[in-house]
Amino acid sequence: ACPAGTSKRRTASTGWRRCSTPWTRSTATRTCCPMSRWALASWTPAPETPTRWSSPSPSSRLSSRRTPPTCTNGEPPVFVKPEKVVGVIGASGSSVSIMVANILRLFQIPQISYASTAPELSDDRRYDFFSRVVPPDSFQAQAMVDIVKALGWNYVSTLASEGNYGEKGVESFMQISREAGGLCIAQSLKIPQDRKDKTIDFDKIIKQLLETPNARAIVIFANDEDIKQILAAAKRADQVGHFLWVGSDTWGSKVSPLLQQEDVAEGAITILPKRATIEGFDAYFTSRTLENNRRNVWFAEYWEENFNCKLTISGSKKEDTDRKCTGQERIGKDSHYEQEGKVQFVIDAVYAMAHALHHMNKDLCADYAGVCPDMEHAGGKKLLKYIRSVNFNGSAGTPVMFNKNGDAPGRYDIFQFHTTNTSTPGYRLVGQWTDDLQLNIEEMQWGRGVREVPASVCSLPCKPGERKKMVKGMPCCWHCELCDGYQYQADEVTCLLCSYNERPNENRTGCRSIPIVKLEWHSPWAVIPVFLAMLGIIATIFVMATFIRYNDTPIVRASGRELSYVLLTGIFLCYIITFLMIAKPNVAVCSFRRIFLGLGMCISYAALLTKTNRIYRIFEQGKKSVTAPRLISPTSQLAITSSLISVQLLGVFIWFAVDPPNIIIDYDEQKTMNPDQARGVLKCDITDLQIICSLGYSILLMVTCTVYAIKTRGVPENFNEAKPIGFTMYTTCIVWLAFIPIFFGTAQSAEKLYIQTTTLTISMNLSASVALGMLYMPKVYIIIFHPELNVQKRKRSFKAVVTAATMSSRLSHKPSDRPNGEAKTELCENVDPNSEYRSSPLGIGQYLNFIVFLLFGLLS
Prior knowledge:
Rossmann fold; Tumor Necrosis Factor Receptor, subunit A, domain 2; 24 strands; three-stranded parallel beta sheet; single chain; disordered C terminus; 4 domains
C-alpha cells in the first residue's frame, strides 16, 4: 500500500503511480512515490530533461482514464489533501524558469533554479522571487570577454542558438565588450530553430563567417545539436584549424557534440561553472534499475534512450529500434556513463531551500515542534528573505550564497580541447575565473599542436613610427600611416611634430636633437675665400711696406700719401673680414663682424671718393678761375674721409644699442624635407637685411665715387689716378652687381650659410684686389723695377692746372685735333701749388712687364 500521507494516480507515460508528498511544507508536488523513510537530505534527483520526457502521450492519458488507480499491493489508494506549495526547485532551462517565475511571483512563491543562467533572470523587479545556485550568463559573458582580451583578440564574431539562452548570452557578451572597449564584433549570427534543411543553413552560416576572415575567433552560445552541426559545416567547408571557438557552458566539457569531428574543435576554449564530482553519486546512480527507481517517472524513457532498446510497457516513445529491453541492463557496464555536471547544483539548490526552511523554523518556532502558526502564515516574502541570507558550504565544498538579485557568485573553470600532444583527445583545465581571470596561456595549444596564440584581429599592429587611422564605425580596424616629415608617433593614433630644435629618431617613436653645424675652416666653401684673403693680405702688407720704405719718393708723394695709407687700411680690413665671417660665432666675433663688415669698404671708398671729388673740384674750378678750390690739402682730405667713415661707425653703434650682438642656432635654414639631413646653423644674429644695410652705405659711396670717376674720365691720365680709379669703380660695380642676385637668390637654399658667406667674402676680396691691383701695383712696379722713372721732373703752379683744365675742356670738344683725342700735357700728378711732380707714363713693354708682375704677385 502507499504510505500514509501520500496520494496515488496512474501516470500517463509509464503507467506507474505518482504520489504527492509534503516534506515539512517544503517544495511542491513530488514526481515519485516515496517511502516514509526518505528524507530531504537523501533525495538526489536524476538529470532533468523536461523538453523530451515531461509530456505524457495522448494514448497514455486515455489509458489512465480507463484503468482505476491502485497501489502495488492491490489495495485502493488513500487520497489526502495536497499540502500548500511554499517553494519550487527548478527548472533547468532558462526559458522554462522564466515562464514558471512569471507565475510563481503572482503567488509569492520562492523559486531556486540549479541550471538557468539567462541574464534577464537577474532583474529583481520582474523576477523578484527567483534565485539560482549557478552564476548568470552575464558573469559568463564577462569571463569570456576577459579570455578573448587575454589572448590578444580584438575582432570576433558571435553565434547564438535562437532562443532566450543564446540570444541573451550574446547580448550580454556584446554589451560587456562595448563597455570594456578594445573589442569589436565582426558579425553576430543566429541559428534558427525552425530550419528545414540543417545542412544548408549551417553551410550558409559558415560562408557568412568566412566573409570576415580576420575574425577567426567565434564566441558561441548554442545547444549541443547546434554545436555539432556548426562543427560539421566547418569541416565540410575545409576550414579545419581556421576558426577559434570560444564556447559557453552549454558546450562545457561535453564530448558528444565533438564526435567524429575532433580535429575541427581542436583548440576550442570552453567555460563551465566551477564544479566537482559528487562522491557516492556514481555508485548510487549506476545501481538504479527499473525496479528500484520507480519513483522517477522519466527513468523509463532514460532507460530506453541509454540502452537503445524498447520497453513493452504502454506509452513507450522509442520508435527507432525493435530491440526489447530485458531490465537486466546496467548503467556504466552496458552503456557509457559520466556524471552530469549539474548534479552538484541540484544538490546545492535542495540544500539551500532546506537551510532556509530550517533557519526560518528556528526563528519563528523556537519552542514549537514542527510548523508553528507563525511559520504557517509567514508567506513567501519571509521565506525569500531566509533563502537570500543562506551561506553554507555546498556539496563541492564551495560556498553557496546569493546576492541581492538572487544570483550565485561567478566561479568558472576554463577548458581547452586538445587532440595532439596527448594520449587521448579531451578537455584540459587551463584556467579559472572568479571575478578576475587566471589563464595559463603557456599550457594552451592550437591546431596541429601549435603553441603560439593565433591572431584574430581586424588589422595587424602598426610598425614603430606609424599611426592608426581608424576605420569609421570599426574601432578595432585601422590603416597604418607613416608619421612623415618631422613628426613622431606620440601614441597609437597620433603623430606630433617634434619641437623646432629636434627631429624624429630612426624609428620615429620620439625626437632627438638636430646636429649643430657651422662653416668649418676645412670646408671647400671656406678654403677659396681664405686663400684669396691670405694672398690679398700678403700683397697689401707688401705694398704698404714698399710705400713706407719709399715714403719720400716722388711717386709715393704724388699719389697722396695720407689717403693712400687710408685706402690700404680699408683694403686690408676687406681681407680681414673673411676670417671673421668663417670663425666660430661668439659674442666677440659677432661684434667684430658688425664693425668690420662694412668698415673696410667704407674706408676704401671714402678715400677714393675724396680723391675723385678733389680732382673733379680742381678741374672744375680751373675752368672758372685761377683760384685754388677749398679743402684740397692733405689735412682737409683726411678730415673729409674721416667724416664719411664716421657715418658708418655711427650706424654700427646705433645697431649695437638697438640689437646687441648675440649668437643663435638657426634651425630653419637647413631644415630640409628629409629630417635626417636637417642641421641647426650656429651663426651670429644678423639677418640678410642687416647685412645689406651695413653694406648699403659703402655701396652708396662706391656708386658716388663711380659717378665722379665718370665725370673725371677726360682728365689727363697723369692727374691723380683718375682713370685707374674709374677702371677700379667700373670693375667693382660689376662684382657687386653679380653679388646681389647670388646673395638673395640663395636665401631659401639649404646651403644658404655656405653660399652667402662664400659669395660675400669673395666679393669683398675681389673688390679689394681690384683696388690694390689697379691703384698700387703699377706704382710698386715702377718703384722696384724702374727706379729711374721715380724722379722729380719740374715744379709748376696752380696756373698750369688751369691751363691744363682749359686745354682739356677744348680738346673734349675737338677730339680730331689729335690722333687719339687726348691733350698732350706734362703736368705733375700732385696738384699741390707748392709741389708738383711728374712721373713718365709706362710704355707698352713696361706695361706688359707690370701685368706679369701683378699676376706673379697674386699667385705668390
